[in-house]
Specification:
The chain is mostly helical and about 120 residues long. It is built from three helices and no strands. Helix 1 crosses helix 3. The chain is elongated, with a radius of gyration of 28 Å.
Length: about 120
């Protein structure tokens, strides 16, 4: 990992400890901030090891947050919309009611393609 990125992560951890110290007023947080800051300045090896651990923690938290946020969006937004659509008898866009009646759900489209159909496809 580049030295700049390592120092950036160490500075982030140090500032995080300082902010937590200001919130919780625990003296060990100030001590941890000073120790991490000094390690970032004087030891490349320890800085890289701490940064690697920090990145692993960030990766795990990212996966957990993504799961929680996507689940929340689904249950808060999508599920009520589905219930309302079912309650008010919305249009069957997927043709699920016709699935048992016909062997195929493909719709026949009689269209002769021309050269202008392929222009500006987007």
């Amino acid at each position: 990992m580049k030295r700049e990125k390592t120092l950036e992560a160490m500075l982030t951890i140090t500032v995080g400890f300082l902010v937590l110290f200001l919130i919780f007023k625990a003296s060990w947080l100030l001590t941890a901030a000073v120790v991490v800051g000094l390690i970032g300045v004087f030891s490349n090896y320890l800085s890289e090891k701490i940064t690697q651990g920090w990145m692993k923690i960030a990766e795990v938290l990212g996966r957990i947050n993504a799961t929680i946020l996507l689940s929340a969006v689904f249950f808060i937004m999508v599920t009520p919309m589905a219930f309302l659509r079912k309650l008010f008898g919305g249009k069957d866009l997927l043709h699920l009611r016709d699935a048992r009646k016909t062997p195929s759900l493909y719709e026949a489209r009689d269209h002769v393609y021309e050269a202008k159909d392929l222009e500006d496809t987007w």
